[in-house]
Amino acid sequence: MKTIRVASYNIRKAIGTDRRRMPERVLEVLAEVDADIVALQEADRRFGVRSAAIPPLLMEQQSGYRPVPLNVQTDSMGWHGNAILVRKAAEVAGHDVLHLPCLEPRGATMAEVRLNGATVRVFGMHLDLSGLWRRRQAAAVIHAAAQGAAMPTVLMGDLNEWSAGRGCLADFARHYSFAPCGRSFHARRPVARLDRIMHCSRLTLKDCGVHESAAARKASDHLPIWAEFALG
């Protein structure tokens, strides 16, 4: 049976809970999680040219990943801070960026990834702090995911939703199942499930969780979440 492991991680621009910017720690955590595909949030610096929080050379030399080439912002890894990483052996069959309705700049990313003999469509997102705008953004992502050829689909990211099952969570739940990963924020004392992984019926959830290593508790204010799926 073919399986695939995905993860979502808000890396806070590589600034840890000690307020030090150390991208090496993020790469250490990613190696521990060992996912095939990773959706990152806050993957770029906020101001200026919004350069990648993890320098490209460091990523190339000290990790098993490469970013999906979104071809939007020259110095950035992602789109409005959203990036998708894949194993270096994976093939990116397609990619796109989504313009989300917003007051402040927000976006989402999509990649179709071929790995282990299977193709999966992945969406990464970081939704608004405002509940009204979160629901509008969720609707835009759901609409985008319904387009194109039918294939196994995963949606993941920092939804910024504190409620247990209302707001954008209820909107997504009408179309997708949630992996019950657990509480991921704040990294030092997790109290909220802000980070979520959702999947379509073409994927069977095998296992999921929150990665709570010592390195993860220092590398960002969010802990990474992960899920493993069987295809077919």
TrEMBL record:
Using the record's annotation, list all stretches that form the Endonuclease/exonuclease/phosphatase domain.
7-222
Q: What is this protein called?
A: Endonuclease/exonuclease/phosphatase family protein
In its keyword annotation, does this UniProt entry include Nuclease?
A: yes
Instruction: List the Gene Ontology MF annotations in alphabetical order.
Output: endonuclease activity
Q: Which UniProt keywords apply?
A: Endonuclease, Hydrolase, Nuclease
Q: Which InterPro entries match?
A: Endo/exonu/phosph_ase_sf, Endo/exonuclease/phosphatase, GPI-anchor_lipid_remodeler
Give the domain of life: Bacteria
